[in-house]
């Protein structure tokens, strides 16, 4: 394990020792030690699933570590709650919008802790004056009287930062602040981060864009599989994107599942010139009988949006679909199912399952016509569902059990049973084993292989590198909504995936 304790003359502002966090079947963080000094920009990098988000949530008090210690300003804490974290001066600026569009900039900066006047009433003038002072201190071109709904993406990021600084923050944690921004806007955010440093604010910067990380960071911590691989002092060391990329990947062979060789047949389903809107890049892909086609990429690459659009769950500007060589119309999930497509979504508990319905109802809901034209054949339904429950080894006390009471792995199997019951030919798996224990992962992989053997075509979105490499016949790498690389055979390596994705 890498020793993250660095000898420095000044006292660290934040220091963690031995932070551990485990979720069912997944070790998210293992013995993570980290330090942040006053006025330092310390970046944390790693591929999807490396543990960055879990670490942020522990510092912000949203999650409690299983073990370890947090030191802040010399005080020792076994864990923090959100109020403690804020009171200590830690603020997280997430990608999600936390602003009120109908309020102006000044109102957004101070919402929840409004400025008051002499007699305790809210003072609009005082808020406006202090907002101008904050804006001036960072050299930002921003009018505090403008409503947030009229601002561009970069200006909204500025407001988030100002909102955090208004709470007298000592530490800003910036989570992917330039994701999907064009270069000219990215530079504005990077300049703001540098200005924060000049104002004595410490920044923990999370980003997949390694070029940006190297430009602004004092130190860089590399995480992989929940562990600290290395900590680089940017000023003192010769480092580049290639070195960081290599450290982010590379695993022992026992991390990889052994997939059988399966004969791949003809093109079963094809997407041509698919565009989300008039400014989006056009996407083309095809998947063959017996093939497992993976879609890789970093956060915000557009992978989930792509497969949801293919399934008819999101609108698109233009594009064509072909099934078995014939053009088909897919404008809704109903169209997709009628064509022969099934989607096992990333968040199965929200969009994949009807949590208040039983296992039986969730399995048959996609193809009730099989059970009768007018009246449902209840006995036949029970036999069909029991067959799929046995086949997938779904652990449930009965077919009438509400799916919300099942484990994550068994919920995943129920969604899969639905599409096996409907007998679709193209299965789209979006993060098929996220949050699932190791044994259930192996079961899901065997099921996927069994489907491919029967000539089904599988499109798999995954953030897990061992899963991508072990299970894929071909990998498409996405970046900012575009497919930027196609990898086959010996090209399918961690290094190739990462180098194309960043």
Write a concise keyword list for the protein shown above.
502 residues, alpha/beta, six-stranded mixed sheet, 17 helices, 24% strand
Number of helices: 17
Please count the beta strands (DSSP E, at least 2 residues each). 20
How far from one another are the termini?
A: 26 Å
Radius of gyration: 25 Å
Q: Classify the beta-strand content into a percent band.
A: 15-25%
User: Which structural class is indicated by helix and strand composition?
Assistant: alpha/beta
* Low-pLDDT windows of residues: 1-7
The biggest beta sheet reads: 6 strands, mixed
Helix content: 25-40%
Arithmetic mean of pLDDT? 86
Largest sheet, order of strands side by side?
Answer: 6-7-8-3-9-10
Tell the overall outline.
Answer: globular
Outline the fold blueprint.
Layout lengths: L13 E10 L2 E11 L4 E5 L6 H9 L6 E6 L2 E3 L4 H6 L2 E4 L11 H6 L13 H15 L14 H13 L5 E5 L7 H16 L3 E5 L3 H7 L2 E6 L2 E7 L7 H8 L18 E9 L7 E6 L3 E5 L6 H8 L7 E6 L2 E3 L4 H7 L1 E4 L3 H5 L6 H6 L13 H15 L15 H15 L3 E5 L7 H16 L3 E5 L3 H7 L2 E6 L2 E7 L5 H8 L1
Parallel strand pairs: 3-8, 3-9, 6-7, 7-8, 13-18, 13-19, 16-17, 17-18
Antiparallel strand pairs: 1-2, 1-4, 4-5, 9-10, 11-12, 11-14, 14-15, 19-20
């Amino acid at each position: 394990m890498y020793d993250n304790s660095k000898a420095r003359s000044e006292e660290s502002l934040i220091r963690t020792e031995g932070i551990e966090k485990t979720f069912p079947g997944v070790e998210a963080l293992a013995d993570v030690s980290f330090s942040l000094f006053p006025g330092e920009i310390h970046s944390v990098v790693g591929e999807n699933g490396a543990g960055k988000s879990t670490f942020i949530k522990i510092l912000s008090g949203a999650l409690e570590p299983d073990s370890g210690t947090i030191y802040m300003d010399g005080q020792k804490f076994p864990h923090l709650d959100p109020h403690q974290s804020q009171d200590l001066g830690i603020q997280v600026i997430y990608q999600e919008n936390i602003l009120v569009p109908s309020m102006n900039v000044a109102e957004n900066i101070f919402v929840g802790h409004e400025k008051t006047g002499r007699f305790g009433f809210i003072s609009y003038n005082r808020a406006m004056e202090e907002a101008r002072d904050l804006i001036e201190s960072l050299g930002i071109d921003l009018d505090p009287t403008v409503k947030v709904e009229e601002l561009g993406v970069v200006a909204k990021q500025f407001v988030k930062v100002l909102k955090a600084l208004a709470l007298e923050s000592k530490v800003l944690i910036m989570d992917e602040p330039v994701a999907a921004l064009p270069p000219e806007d990215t530079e504005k955010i990077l300049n703001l981060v540098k200005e924060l440093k000049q104002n004595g604010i410490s920044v923990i910067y999370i980003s997949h864009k390694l070029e940006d990380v190297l430009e602004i960071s004092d130190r860089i911590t590399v995480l992989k599989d929940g562990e600290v691989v290395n900590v680089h002092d940017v000023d003192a060391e010769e480092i580049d994107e290639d070195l960081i990329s290599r450290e982010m990947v590379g695993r022992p062979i026992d991390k990889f599942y052994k997939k059988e060789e399966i004969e791949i047949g003809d093109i079963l389903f094809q997407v041509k010139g698919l565009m989300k809107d008039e400014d989006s890049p056009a996407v083309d892909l095809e998947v063959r009988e017996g093939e497992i086609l993976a879609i890789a990429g970093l956060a915000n690459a557009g992978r989930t949006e792509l497969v949801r659009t293919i399934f008819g769950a999101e609108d698109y500007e233009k594009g064509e679909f072909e099934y078995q060589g014939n053009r088909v119309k897919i404008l809704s999930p109903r169209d997709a199912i009628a064509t022969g497509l099934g989607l096992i979504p990333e968040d199965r508990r929200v969009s994949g399952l009807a949590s208040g319905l039983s296992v039986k109802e969730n399995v048959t809901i996609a193809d009730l016509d099989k059970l009768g034209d007018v009246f449902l054949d209840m006995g036949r339904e029970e036999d069909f569902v029991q067959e799929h429950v046995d086949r997938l080894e779904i652990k449930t006390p009965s077919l009438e059990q509400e799916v919300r009471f099942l484990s994550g792995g068994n919920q995943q199997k129920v969604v899969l049973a639905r599409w096996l019951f409907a007998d679709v030919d193209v299965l789209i798996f979006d993060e098929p084993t996220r949050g699932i224990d190791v044994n259930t992962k192996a079961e899901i992989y065997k099921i996927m292989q069994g489907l491919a053997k029967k000539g089904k075509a599988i499109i798999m979105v995954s953030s897990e590198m061992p899963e991508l490499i072990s299970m894929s016949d071909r990998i498409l790498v996405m970046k900012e909504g575009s497919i930027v690389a196609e990898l086959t055979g010996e090209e399918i390596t961690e290094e190739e995936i990462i180098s194309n994705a960043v």
